[in-house]
Amino acid sequence: MLEVQLTHFYHSLQTYGLRNKEHPATWLDAFFLLQQLLEEKNDGQRQVVFIDELPWLDTVRSGFITALEGFWNNWGAHQDNLMMIVCGSANSWMLDKLINNHVGLYGGGTHEIKLTPFSLEECEAFLKSNRVFLSRYDIAQSYMILGGIPYYLHYFKKGLSLAQNVDQLFFSENAKLKFEYDRLFSSVFSNPDMVKAIVSFLYTKNAGYTRREITKGLHISDGSTITTCLNALEAGDFIVKYTPFGMSGKQEHYRLSDPFCIFYLHFVQEQQKNEHFWKQAVQSPPVVAWRGIAFENLCFRHIKQIKSALGISGVATKLSAWSKRSDDTDGLQIDLLIERNDNVINMCEIKYSSDEFTVSKDYYRVILRRQNQLTEMISQYTDHHIRSDL
User: Fold this and answer.
1) What gap in Å lies between CA 389 and CA 142, rounded to an integer?
2) Which of 162, 120, 166 lies closest to 143 in space, CA to CA?
């Protein structure tokens, strides 16, 4: 593997003008050749070095990261006209070895760009540019399945309905994304089996679990491994960390939020042999139930747009949900609470409907009961903290 990577790197240098230099035997040699090439080509103008998928060059005992540190710290960082751009899809590696590196490359980076999924608006524009015309109802559903990832969306074929495209992507004999779930974790994480186990466990409860519950449920130790995995999952937007309303910061929950993973675990892994599953099941109770949860997730991922619609874009906020079980009632649940630093809490009820949703008298009473219970809880919470402060 190392030999192949060094050869590819050497050929790239030759493509850009390297001549009369021997094939590098180590990464130290390879980066020295890069330095020599840049010095030969230096005419005072901007020079750009771009290395894609950096984590996969750092194989076991390859010495890659040491060579990169030496190249940049000893020479590259002192060249005023040199810009080095590195990319990588392995979040844990990028975080540990580059962004949060406190040794050789500490403070070496000047800018970070985190590529994020498209928003609903961007999904609509992207599909139209590919001449795929779907209703906004179906665009929302496509987001609930694919999470706004343009690489997945570009597989949509014009002239097909959303259900037909979903069947072709996930359930047909040669479906493009049938095995994407395993490929995704293998390509992005250095410990894919552990990460997949965490994701599968979080999938079992929409509200998520505490760190202690995760380690207990998976029968693993609460150490650096789980920390690394959770941090990588959070950095990659696979999960979100939040504190349920009314709980202390020590009761942080981790919740699975990646639409693609949720859809795969909900449907794809159990339906590998039915090529027309989505067209047949699109109005089935399991799909209808999934839509409700998936739409809540969509709203959480578009909180910027929701805040804009509410006119509170400039207000610092914290997101949470709230549920309360009671022996004498049916219990209470509020889908989204936006806690604002201007001493206001927005209570949001999230409903997914193909038609205009009408609030009946009975449903209005339910909302009022939730509002009253929330108000009472906020009052008790505030009184408790006032007494504590006194």
Assistant:
1) 49
2) 120
Cβ count within 10 A of residue 6: 20
Helix ranges, the chain (H): 2-15, 27-41, 64-74, 91-93, 120-129, 136-146, 150-153, 162-166, 180-188, 192-203, 211-218, 224-235, 259-266, 277-281, 285-300, 303-310, 361-389
pLDDT value of residue 375: 86
CA atoms within 13 A on the CB side of 255: 23
The residue to which tokens 């994701």 are assigned: 199
Q: Which residues does the chain have with pLDDT short of 50?
A: 327-328, 384-390
Tallying the residues shown for the chain, one arrives at 390
Separation between Cα atoms, residue 168 and residue 33, nearest integer Å: 47
Q: In what order do the strands lie in the sheet with 317-324?
A: 317-324, 332-340, 345-348
> 182-264 has which CATH code?
1.10.10.10
**pLDDT at residue 243 in the model:** 86
Locate the domains of the chain by residue range. Answer: 2-99, 120-178+272-298, 182-264, 317-389
Phi, then psi, of 197 in degrees rounded to 5: -65, -40
**69-92 residues labelled b (16+ CB within 10 A) or e (exposed):** bbbbeebbeeeeebebebebbbbb
Contact predicate 136/124, CB 8 Å: yes
CB 42, CB 81: distance < 8 Å: yes
The pLDDT value recorded for residue 156 is 97
The whole-model pTM stands at 0.83
